[in-house]
Design goal:
By secondary structure, the protein is α+β, with helices and mostly antiparallel strands. It is built from 30 helices and 41 strands. Strand 16 and strand 17 form a beta hairpin. Helix 19 runs antiparallel to helix 20 and helix 20 packs across helix 21. The protein is elongated, with a radius of gyration of 35 Å. The N and C termini lie far apart (97 Å). The N terminus is likely disordered.
Length: 989
Amino acid sequence: MPVESRQSESDALPTWTLDDWNRALYRHFFAVAPKEIVAPLTRLYVTSEDLRAAAFASLTPEESRTAFIESVKRALGPRSLALDASLRRKQWNPGGPIPPPFLSHLLLTCMVANDLSEELKWTGNFRDRLSCTLGTHSQPLLKRLRPLWEDLARWSVRQNLEGAGCRPLRLPKVPDSGYHCIIGYSIRLAIPSRRDKETLATLLRQHHFDGGEPDLNSVLHVVGASISKFSAEFEDIFREFASGLKSLPSSVLFHTTFWAAVREVALLVVHQPDRDPTSVKTRLELEDDDGQFWLTLTADTEIQSAEIRSLVLPSMRRSPFRFLLTDTDGKSLVEQAFSSAKSDAKLDRVLTGTRVAVADGVLLFEESEDYVHVLSRSFPSSGRLCALVADRLKSSLNRAVEAGGLRPQVSRSSRPGWSEWRGLTAEGLRRVDFTSFPALCGIRSLRRTLPPPEIRIRGGIQFGTGFVALANALPHVEIAGAESVCIEVTGGDWVPLEALEGTEDCWRFGTTLSTGRLLGTHRIVAFSASVPIAERGISFIENAFTTDYKRPQDPSRWLIESTRIDTIPFTEDATQVTVAPELPNPELWQKDAEDRFFLTPGSPVKRAAPLVELTTLLCTRFAAQRGISEGELLQIMKSALGANVSEVWPILRGWVESGMLDVLADARWRARIYFARTPSLVVHRRDARYEAVLTGLVPPFLLERFDKLSAIAGATPVERRSASEAVPPLPRCRSLRLGLLMRLARELNLPPLTEVRPIRDFVASVRSLTEGHTSSLQDSWPVYRHWDWEKRAFKESPSQSAHSGISIRWCRRDDGPDRYKLCRHDSPIWWTRSRTWAILAAFTLAGVPVFSRLPAGVIESRGDSLYLPLPVARFVSWTGPVNPGPVKTDDGRRAYRYTFADDRLRESVLSGLWPAAAASGKKSSPGIARRFAAAIRAGFGPLVPLPVALRRSMFELEDPRSFRTPVLVPATALPELYAILRATTQEEA
């Protein structure tokens, strides 16, 4: 029977009604996919963890238990549990598909039967325990519960036979008279008994179980040696579990009654968790960046002490662990975790778990759903793993995993005495027999456990707590040990997921499943050996057609590449454009019927399918989340374009230089985050016309509207070209009327028109920038890579580290963006945060040309990160006929190409960056430029386009590097400009 999921209400769990709990508990214990062959329910072992899982709640198990009990109390009022259940029975149709409304009453009795909570330890009497739980003096008429159990069993069997998706309940045999004839079902379904659980807790305490996930081999040894202390029923479930070890997968073994009891006792009884809600949670995170592991210690709460400083991480992180922990000098606390140096009490508590793993010698990291590798304190349940292994264990671990059929990638770590391991999986390690290697048996993270089977959602576009139902960007489902996975979709149907090729435990939504059926909240259930082993709620929303991309919440903490200096705060005008106000003159418009903007059918501009899918995916992602990390974006583009990582880097630079994306460096942390730029129309003059370029990240629907509306308005389309097939060409159109382009921007719901600034406004000499930097070069930043002049790339061991005495050192640490130091004969002379500026400056000081000139205004570079400064590159992209980007040359090598509007503009830009390389042929007259600028500033009234003839004459008199010829000027300034022009002409004559 289809049961509606209530995941959206899990945060309001304390306000749930008993009907809410009935639906949730039925779904958790009974509901399965229709016609699925499942094993019958013979035990109902109800724990606090079951209540939390049933409600998909973010609360703790104890909080979920409290919410459930309070809901029952509210529903009962002054009535007893048995009386209220009987009254509800009268309102229920046993022949219908609706679950019994008294289900929660019956399951509560199973929970009370063997609950080891503090409030019930004082008594073993079932009636007293039930009364204490419900806060009453007594609970009479319990004999009414027996027929309700039998009604439930008959109904579940009938639902199963009808193929409605219900596990049949098989009741145990109970006597027809005596004590257990009344409460027998509750007692015998809730095996093991309270006494058996108390005995088990005592054993685990005596053998010093540490409260983590229990070690399977140790549990079997301890319980097997003391099995005579338990009841016959407990011995049966122990033998049943031991027999299943030979044939059942671990995901099924986890759900056996024996292991559920062991885990509950080990985690909730032996280990008393810190119940202080203000306690700080920490975790060790791993980032695999540029072939090297980087470790950071993070916390979910800010910590300040004599030895700890908290740094707020970027808001784009999905994880609640938003604080990076460092020492008072800004260095990562990870170093102290690997050190034996003493520290204060608070720091000791923070580092305890990490130091235990370091002492063991093997640190296993599993990938979390927020795309971060996190240190696992016990054997991970599923997924890809990374590991740091001490050199003393390297040989033993390598022999063990190779004997198990694994071939990990092992490399030397930058941390002395350790190695980095990649290519491991939890499933592969589970097949390895570590008992044959004494050195590995004591390592906690390698002990064989039965972790809870957990459904994890990988990939997709997360929007709030749900995912966007985009066909080419649906998430994958990861679950270890599942034989089948199903989702309950709209309409109550169950649809099986398909196994993802090339993986062991990943499943995908089938291509025949329409995204419309995914909208809303649904339930995913995984099965193994006819047993539901895991379930999870998932929500989908419709794809949002918007360009309202999320921007940084605190722009002042971000840096972007500039030209006047190497980097500037993002709050400054880094786009190098200026806003053009609207024209009020009505005579500039043509008032005819054909000048209206109506949407008419038309064919969209053809783009390569991978680019369309990639653009749609990125538009949706940037609308849903605040920025994407560089590593994640690289993987997205690599997958969408079918390129390797080395090919993606210049492609990504092409997207940034075309104005589709911004890449920002966090001033407080080593992070580079990409944000989508909102689409806008940028205009400049070309051949006596205004050319408009649609910049920003443009979704397909907006591109189609641009084509239709610009054609209807009478704008002339411009051929779209890009140097790279992987960089979308910028949409362009031209018009003699600036007002038409302004109206086009309004009809497209774009910001007001912006005007490209003249190149002289922001270009700067590379040499002067290098010589003008006076910051201190003395710091403790460790060197990460060196520039290889032969390979033209950063390498760990360069074959040629210096040219003409000039070298570049790439330095990195956690509490700030990367630094690049320029050295002359190994003595530091300058540093920058910009990789582009570091390379440009080094080539300039070494006398090596960066670009080669080609015909038709083209320049090319070869090597890693040999680019124009970002504002200059965007000027070229917006004013030139072709987007910049990577190309493959005739000799098969890769290069990066820029195309200027003409050779004159190319030489003007290069002469600004390298003044000695070129010189302008124009005569400069600073006095004339100042008079022009003063006349424009003194003008008032509406802005009008500068007449073409006047603009051409002004351009012939002034130097492009000393004065900006505007597109718009105040109307009253025109007479003064003509007067200056006439006077200047007469003086020259």
